[in-house]
Amino acid sequence: MGAGEVLANDTAEETFCVARGGVDEKMLQAALDWACGPGKVDCGVLLQGKACYDPDTVEAHATYAFNAYYHRMGMAAGTCYFNGVAVVTTTDPSHDSCAFTGR
């Protein structure tokens, strides 16, 4: 049984939607802008001085916004895609005082 099968069959496993590493930063920024705009994610925690500002990278901020959207949409199929720049993982991206929603 492959890892993908384990994830698909283990509903107790927490999942997170994160920015895919090594993708074009402009595509990540566009997806982040969508998530924080039309996607209606509250991205206030990404502002300077807030809990999820650091690290101040497009990838880190996109990961927060993608995961928030994914969970707000009930982890429905297709809600962690963002034109191919996001991926579902079981690795919790939370750090310091920046906590991510998982299930």
UniProtKB/TrEMBL annotation:
One of its GO terms (cellular component) is plasmodesma. Residues 15-100 form the X8 domain. Keywords: Cell membrane, Disulfide bond, Glycoprotein, GPI-anchor, Lipoprotein, Membrane, Signal. The keyword Lipoprotein applies. Pfam families: X8. The keyword Cytoplasm does not apply. It is a lipid-anchor; GPI-anchor. Its main location: membrane. It is found in: Cell membrane. This is X8 domain-containing protein. It comes from Spirodela intermedia (Intermediate duckweed).
